[in-house]
Amino acid sequence: MRIGIVCYPTYGGSGVLATELGKALADKGHMVHFITYQQPVRLNAFHANIYYHEVQVPTYPLFDFPPYESALSSTMVDVIMNHQLDLLHVHYAIPHASTAYLAKQIVGKQGRIVPFITTLHGTDITLVGKDKTYAPVVTFSINESDAITAVSNNLREETYKSFPIEKDIEVIYNFVDVERFKRREPELQNFRNAIAPNGEKILLHVSNFRKVKRVPDVVKIFRKVREVMPAKLLLVGDGPDRPVIESMCREMNLCGDIRFVGKQEQLEDVMSVSDLFILPSEYESFGLAALEAMAAQVPVISSNAGGLPEVNIHGQTGYLSNVGDVNDMAKHAIQLLKDEKLMATLRQGALEQAQRFHISNIIPLYEALYEEVINKALVM
Ligand code: GMT
User: pTM score > 0.85 for this model?
Assistant: First the structure.
């Protein structure tokens, strides 16, 4: 199939997922065309079946807001017509679903039928999409999609609760390349020693440091762990809450044990040397970073918000607590870090759970959906 993928090219989970999906489809022989305003971060090597089309957004003194959506739709039209795309798959509804709808109408006028699939990822529904400024367009363009997928049952339910959606939403879970995240501890011993030279436990958090992630809770949990055992905290990513976190570290006198690693592409190395992954989010449709940690056999201490209970299984792959209950999260973290036998059991449980979301199980679900949607469009 010739597939156009539209996503945010940044470090966010939806962009990561879309890029990994495109790479896996290309490996299986499909022709994949990424249409984004910047090269996606995980699209970092040449592949014969992958094409990248950058959306150029020309500016003009009249524009306080350069019309990105028009540029994106026009690029979609160009790629559809010149590369004979069979299908568009857009990730994150805003603004990708409405721009795909427009592109579909434009190429339709030229006699080309190109269906589009919208994959809902999270805040496109639960936060931004719900805002009344966007809601009418989001509702319309989701309903006009030829197929809709959500990354968890929770997100599917949230979508039905928040929008008058008339179509079926299929749940296709996020996935992980388990081999890529395979724990390589002995090989990375020097790396681990550099972070924790005295054998300290390593706690890890990865996010875009937005409010919804509750990164201050990570620091509060870490402080409680640090009170009872030597430990280090790695904070991977960056975002608006970083200055708040830096102040907290200073006030709590924890700067020596907390390391801001910044945005990282080689997440598998950092995960491979970590003992616990902390994700106390206010909401998480899925929690892709937690799944990647599990593939590296890192148990997860998380909140029980949104789709997290579908990924992190209490007592098997880690522990779940109510949002904001840092005492409970710290209690679980300490219990686990102190008990080697329990840690080994949960590490194994985490890996087994990651296997259920193995990339090779999930890609065929997307391929089957693509075929169904293309065939349906052809007979219409
Ligand atoms: O919604 C966001 O915060 C960003 C979004 C993204 O584009 O990275 O993340 C969402 O999509 C990920 C991939 O499907 C999920 O793993 C995240 O749980 C989800 N984030 C939220 O729901 C907050």
Answer: yes
